[in-house]
Specification:
heterodimer, A: alpha+beta, Arc Repressor Mutant, subunit A, six-stranded antiparallel β-sheet, two-stranded antiparallel ribbon, 8 strands, elongated, B: alpha/beta, Nucleotidyltransferase, domain 5, Tscrpt_reg_IclR_C (chain A)
């Protein structure tokens, strides 16, 4: 077993210090209290600030615990903020793939569609923001299940509703598919949600790697898949690239 | 060899260079911000040399990013922040002071003084604009009056004037070595010095503002700039120039009479194409040139909303009720309606269609029931109702209701707001797939001039719908709410009247 990681221990000490007493401390105070070099303390504080566990008062320069610590168990990123940050990348994906694009987050045992871009062919389409999709039968849902152990455990306990002849209804099968998703870094689905339709999706992560949502395309199965029924490699590449771009933009702006 | 079109978007805070392909897809983006100078309260200036240096860096950078060479660029289009201008020495190319930005209000007193001169109605009639600090002419007059020796130099013909398009084109085409001194009609239409009917500098307007004609550039149609770069990356044809809001109208392919685009950022900018008809607004809108492709211009009506996204920023920064701007939607969705609360964000007066500079903001309808969710709704709804007022004015001026609103800008990510705008206008709201409508409009104009795209129809085919919101509000509810909003706006007038003047 590897030994304890010193920087994590030090970060924990910084948080404990800020959690007691006045709760407001300057860099020098923190460094002196913990016996750390100022540069080291500064690096730890900057990192904690980045993950929003610590905030810096703009006027005084002092540090305090961040609001994110109070909401550790709830949402990591506001759904509307995710839409705002990813809108250009979702547009680019729709333009490149010529398919409609959705961004989904988990909500109440289903995929909540937080953003939707029409298929750019000017046909009549309905904006699907706010719609709920099944987790086990869509590519977006499989991504969310694959990276959330609690969610996939809950899915195993529930009955997997059959929506088409191809919907995965056996938990063992679903497990195998989710392992595959984690291995390849994206999910696909052909006619499991709706006959004639397919979808491809990839995970959106926040700094540290936590998956908070998924971005994907959907459309006619014969457009999205090759003759063997496998998602087309070029489209998979475009989806994965879009997911990485959104992930990077979340890192940049933090 | 694949060919591309390049756009330079010289904006208020940054300058960007964007490369587009024939399907109007974005191939590369390079961007650099420039400094804002606030030497005194109300003064806003920029360094034109810094902006020129930024262009010098971003153009090669965009080419590298796209992996292409200059000979693959069919044409370059320039779009820019409007009204901002700079004066420079014709012989050295060195700016005389900094550029004065459209936000600068140093001419408040001068504008009041000029407003007492005879001929004010005639001025408005000729240039289509009300006298305000916002437009170039008052600031230009201020420079001529306040910089020692400037007027004499200007009258000798040693000084050149230019909005940012003119400054960049002059530099790109050689500067002191034969640089072209030109501007396009849309930029010229924002100076208060151009006659809307002749589309030339107007002697009466020059006389009114005391501006010597020798300093002014030649006015050309938007797609007849006809320059070639000799600096930065030599050999690229500069074929088009347009002011940024006009470029957005063009990029949204609002080519038909009666079509409207709304750009939602810090403020809101609505432009309606009125075709070849010069409509003089009876309802508080500005008359301007939409664009000019070839011989005939497309005129436009413009209604600006001073405070749109900036109200959300105020809610975030000054009240601290949200952490990030998009969270306003989350907070607004915690309640089902505004609870009877309305916010009129007349932070520095009201713009179109009221034009009341003394008005100040109000929050009305407060009861013990109102919580921060209701306030968040009222913040978003303020942008919706201000849009309704402007669109109503446009429809009244043109006599035909517009069937759809095309939107762009950062606030189009706010789903609740876009639905609300559709609800209060009772028409669909459409968002195009390419969000960069300003740059795209400049690229379109440039590509059209160079024959890269055949005609307007070809451009229209590139426009694809990314989202559409359909109206879903009950008619009676809509009209009740609108009546409430109007009452709230009237209260800001009353407040303005009751404030003792100092």
């Amino acid at each position: 077993m590897p030994g304890p990681i010193q920087s994590i221990e030090r970060a924990a000490a910084v948080l404990r210090l800020l959690a007691r007493g006045s709760g407001h401390h300057g860099l020098t105070e923190i460094a002196d209290s913990l016996g750390l070099a100022r540069g080291t303390a500064h690096g730890i504080l900057r990192t904690l600030q980045r993950v929003e566990f610590v905030e810096q008062d703009q006027a005084t320069g002092r540090y305090r615990l961040g609001a994110a610590l109070l909401h550790l168990g709830t949402s990591y990123l506001d759904a509307n903020e995710l839409r705002s940050r990813s809108i250009n990348w979702a547009d680019t994906l729709a333009a490149r793939s010529s398919q409609e694009v959705r961004i989904g987050m988990h909500h109440d045992g289903a995929v909540l569609v937080v953003h939707h871009v029409f298929r750019p062919d000017d046909s009549v389409q309905t904006l699907g923001i706010g719609a709920m999709l099944p987790l086990h039968a869509t590519a977006l849902g499989k991504v969310l299940l694959a990276y959330d152990p609690d969610l996939s455990a809950a899915a195993r306990r529930r009955e997997l509703t059959s929506l088409t002849r191809r919907t995965i209804t056996r938990t063992q099968m679903l497990e195998r598919v989710l392992t595959e998703v984690r291995g390849q870094g994206w999910a696909g689905e052909a006619e499991e949600y709706m006959p004639g339709e397919a979808s491809i999706a990839a995970p959106i992560r926040i700094p540290g790697g936590l998956v908070i949502g998924a971005i994907g395309i959907s459309g006619a199965a014969d457009r999205l898949c090759d003759s063997a029924g496998r998602p087309r490699a070029t489209l998979v590449h475009q989806v994965v690239q879009a997911a990485e771009s959104v992930t990077t933009s979340l890192v940049d702006e933090n | 060899m694949q060919r591309f079109v390049m756009a330079i978007d010289q904006g208020t805070t940054s300058t960007r260079c964007i490369v587009f392909d024939q399907n109007a897809r974005l191939v590369a983006v390079a961007q650099r911000e420039h400094r804002q100078y606030h030497p005194r309260p109300g003064w806003v200036e920029q360094d034109a040399v810094e902006i020129w240096r930024n262009v010098d860096r971003i153009v090669p950078q965009a080419l590298r990013q796209a992996g292409i060479t200059a000979d693959q660029v069919v044409a370059m289009g320039i779009t820019n922040q409007r009204e901002t201008f700079v004066l420079w020495d014709r012989h050295t190319g060195v700016p005389i002071g900094r550029a004065i930005v459209w936000e600068d209000i140093r001419t408040e007193e001068l504008v009041t003084e000029l407003g007492k001169k005879p001929g004010l109605e005639e001025v408005r009639d000729r240039c289509g604009l009300p006298l305000a600090t916002y437009f170039s002419a008052p600031s230009l007059r201020w420079m001529l009056d306040n910089v020692a020796g400037l007027r004499a130099k200007a009258e000798r013909g040693d000084v050149l004037f230019g909005t940012m398009d003119t400054w960049l084109i002059w530099n790109l085409t050689g500067g002191v070595n034969g640089g072209l001194h030109v501007t396009d009609v849309t930029n010229a239409s924002r100076t208060m010095l151009m006659n809307l009917s002749t589309r030339q500098w107007d002697p009466m307007l020059l006389e009114f503002f005391g501006v010597p004609s020798k300093i002014l550039p030649e006015i050309r149609p938007s797609t007849e700039i006809s320059g070639v770069t000799t600096r930065v990356v030599p050999g690229i044809k500069i074929t088009a120039a347009l002011g940024d809001q006009h470029a957005a109208l063009f990029g949204q392919t609002c080519f038909e009479k009666g079509s409207i685009k709304g750009t939602y950022g810090t403020g809101g900018f609505l432009l309606m194409n009125t075709g070849n008809e010069l409509v003089r607004s009876k309802h508080g809108l500005l008359t301007t040139i939409g664009y000019q492709i070839g011989g005939e211009p497309a005129y436009a009506l413009e209604g600006s909303i001073a405070v749109a996204g900036s109200l959300v920023q105020w809610f975030r920064d000054n009240l601290g009720l949200i952490h990030s701007a998009p969270e306003i939607e989350t907070l607004a969705r915690t309640v089902k309606d505004n609870g009877g609360c309305y916010i009129v964000p007349a932070f520095s007066g009201l713009f179109a269609p009221h034009w009341l500079s003394q008005a100040r903001g109000l929050v009305v309808g407060l009861t013990s029931y109102i919580n921060k969710g209701h306030l968040a709704r009222a913040v978003l709804e303020a942008t919706g109702w201000q849009t309704r007022e402007v669109v109503d004015a446009m429809n009244a001026d043109l006599g035909v209701p517009t069937p759809v609103l095309k939107v762009d800008g950062g606030m189009t990510a706010d789903h609740l707001l876009m639905q609300f705008i559709s609800d209060v206008l009772d028409i669909p709201v459409q968002r195009p797939l390419v969000a960069e409508t300003v740059s795209l409009g400049a690229a379109y104009a440039a590509g059209l001039a160079a024959g890269y795209w055949p005609d307007l129809e070809g451009l229209r085919r590139n426009w694809h719908l990314a989202a559409r919101w359909n109206p879903a509000m009950d008619a009676r509810h809509r009209e009740n709410e609108y009546a409430n909003w109007k009452r709230a706006v009237e209260l800001t007038f009353a407040w303005a009247r009751s404030t003792p003047s100092t």
